[in-house]
Each structure stands twice: as C-alpha cells, then as structure tokens.
Amino acid sequence: SEWGSTVKSTGKATTSSTGSFTPKKPGRYVLWVDVIDKTGRKVTTSSAVVDVNDYDWAVKSVAAPASSKVGQLIEFSANVTGTDVSKLTYSYAWSYEGGWDLWDSTLKSTGKMTAEKTGSFTPTKAGTYELWVDVKDPSGRTVTSKSAKVLVKDLSWTATKTIAPSSGRVGQTVVFSANAAGADSGGLTYNYAWRYGSTWSLWDSTLKSTGKMTAEKTGSFTPTKAGTYELWVDVCDAYGRTVSTSTVKFEAVGEPIMGATQTSVDQMVRAYERSGHAYPAKVYASRGAATLRDFCTLIYEEAKVEGVRAEVLFAQVMHETGWLQFGGDVKAEQCNFGGLGATGGGAAGATFPDVRTGLRAQVQHLKAYGSTLPLVNVCVDPRFKYVTRGCAPLVEDLGGKWAVGSQYGITLVTGMKALLKS
C-alpha cells in the first residue's frame, strides 16, 4: 500500500550505484534493487529489512499565562516530553479572537522554525488570544499542540480631562495637565499641545518642539496674543497605547492701550529713580522738562488727553530709549521717544521741537494702533497716516507692528507691571 522505486518516481532506471528514500512513518521497510544490463536482462537482488523507529517525543500542551495586559510581552512554550527532544524545532503561533485577521507565527514572520524553547508576542489590543506551537523533529514529523487561550485586558489607567485655568494674561506662563490615574499610570508619558483659535496657524506641542514625549506631569505654554486657545494632552503608556484628553479653552487677556490710567506721576518718578539711571536734565531743560518730575508729568498729561494709558506710554518710552540714555540711531535731542521713523540702518527718524510734542506724537501713534477714535489734539505724528486704525488694541499686539518681534508687546507689559509695583 506504500512503496516507491527509481522507475516509479522518475520513469527510468538510474546508473547511480546507490539509492535512497526517507521513511515518513515508523515500521518495517523492505528494500531491494533491480539490476539491468545493456541487453535488458534484469536481476533482482535479495531483499533487506530495515526497521524504522519513531522519534521518542510528544507534545502535551501549551504553557502560557491565563491573562495579561495590552502591550505586555506574553511568553509561551510547548510542553514536550520524551527522550529525543534536543533537535526539535518550533513555530510559535497566535491569533486574535480565534480568527485570521490578526495573527502571526515564527514561520510566518521569519520564514523558518526556531530552536528556541519559548516564543513570545506583544498584544496590541484587548481581547482573547489563542496560542499554539507547531513542533517538528529532524525527520520532518510535525505535531501541532493543543491551543491555550489568554485573556488580554487594557492597561489599568485613564486620562480623560485636561486640567487648566480658564483664563490668564498674555505673556504669562499657562500650566496644564491631564487627569491621568489608575494602577498602571506610573510609566505614562505626555505630549502637551495647544493651538490658537480653532485653526493650525499658530500651535505647538511637546512632541513638535522637542521631538519626543515627556514624563513631566505638567506642561506649559506662554500665549503671545490675546484670544482663545485650545489645550489638550496626548497620554501614552509604555506599550504605545495613546489617548487624548478632552480639549479645553483658555482665554488669554491682554493689556489694552486705551483706557483709564492706573499709574501716577509719583509712581513714574519712583520707577525711574529705582532704575539707577540719571535723568538727562541738561538735554531737556531747554525743551520743556527740566526735571524728571516735569518729564513724567508730561507723560501723564499727554496720555490722558488722547485716552491712552500713561503706564503704556511710560513703559514704551523707557524701553525705546534705554531709560532716556539713547545710544542708537535716535539722539536724545530729537525728543523722539518712540523711535518714530527710525527704521534702522542709520535712519534717525523724526525730530520734534520739545518733549511735549515728542510725547504727543508718540501718544497719537499709540492711539492710531489702539483705537479708531479721532484725535483730540492736532496731529503731530508724521507716521499716523500709515497705521491701519485699531489694528492693535492691546499692548501685546504691538509686536511685529510697532517693532519687529512678537515679544515686543510682552516686553512693554513687563515694564508696565514693574511700574505699577513701584
């Protein structure tokens, strides 16, 4: 019922002096040779008997954990018994929920069996996984083990909400976090993300800025302009499972250019004196401001007339002039305290006859940015007409408009706050 020969398998005799075959199952095999000469005479040799024994091994079961978690390595092995196990090879196989949409094996992934006594895989989703092992001996005999099932659960952690303040000031650091909790929350990493408004024209995140997640439990950003920001956190565990927290809105409130003045002449005098700079009385005595108090009084008066906050004007004057020390393209004698027309490259900008006129021009230029209301005084600002009225209602908005750089307005706000604490 089971036999073979050279003529049967190839259709002709062979001139080779030896032959061979590989038994596929244990038992007694009878061998003989038909010898044929050139005349066609055939002589059959006496038969020989070969008893072929099976390799002494058997597969009992699969050793595997009963349960695990998503992302955690699962190791499993075949429970093999017998004396001829040293040369066995294995293919470790698994499937998700008993189907073939998601499965893998040693043979599938590497193209060959392995001599390793254990196999492993990392589940990527929760559910029931079925495991089995194909075991093969050198004769080619392959036995598939009984399967084992492993219930894989999600890691025990949650992160749903974004914890953040609802509002704050432009230029002030905003700290926010995710409400991550659970037994497996210790190794989580975070990507703190934000965007301005509901578009992607202005946004950033930990991953964008550093190229990686962070283990820090809080993130932060500094709003550079007033308006609504959206904040959220991407939370990732050690095995790649990532969830995003709910998006919350943060309202960044800026400092308006227009409005009631909150400072006083005395406060401006104290702030200047604390700066450690000497007031250039020799320059401004003949230009309507013989003393520091005279100068601060003019700031207060000119700002009030046009409805500009005096603390905005004071902070800008001191920032632009280096506390009235100048040193750049604009000279102290020009009474140009806002750098009007000084566009760099040696351009000195506008010159005004006295301190009041110079401050008035600067106030009018601030009003051009901060409001659409008409001027009270006759316009002395030579650049008033070039401003799109009301395009920068907040001090922070002056960055990139009055001067280059998004931090310009924030720098002025810092000076304002220092003044109000004097």
Summarize the structure.
The model has no long low-confidence stretch (mean pLDDT 93).
Report on the architecture of this protein.
This protein is α+β, with helices and mostly antiparallel strands and 422 residues long. The protein is 20% helix and 26% strand. It is built from nine helices and 22 strands. The chain has helices at residues 6-10, 106-110, 206-210, 265-275, 281-284, 292-306, 310-321, 355-370, 408-420, and strands spanning 27-31, 34-36, 42-44, 48-52, 57-63, 67-69, 74-82, 89-96, 103-105, 119-121, 127-136, 142-144, 148-153, 162-163, 167-169, 174-178, 189-196, 203-205, 219-221, 227-236, 242-244, 248-253. β8 and β9 form a beta hairpin. α6 packs parallel to α8. The radius of gyration is 43 Å and the shape is rod-shaped. The mean pLDDT is 93.
Low-confidence stretches: none
Question: What is the helix tally?
Answer: 9
Q: State the end-to-end distance.
A: 110 Å
Question: Radius of gyration, rounded?
Answer: 43 Å
**Overall geometric form:** rod-shaped
- The total count of strands amounts to 22
Task: List the topology elements.
Elements: H1 6-10, E1 27-31, E2 34-36, E3 42-44, E4 48-52, E5 57-63, E6 67-69, E7 74-82, E8 89-96, E9 103-105, H2 106-110, E10 119-121, E11 127-136, E12 142-144, E13 148-153, E14 162-163, E15 167-169, E16 174-178, E17 189-196, E18 203-205, H3 206-210, E19 219-221, E20 227-236, E21 242-244, E22 248-253, H4 265-275, H5 281-284, H6 292-306, H7 310-321, H8 355-370, H9 408-420
Parallel strand pairs: 6-13, 15-22
Antiparallel strand pairs: 1-4, 2-3, 5-7, 7-10, 8-9, 8-11, 11-12, 11-13, 14-16, 16-19, 17-18, 17-20, 20-21, 20-22
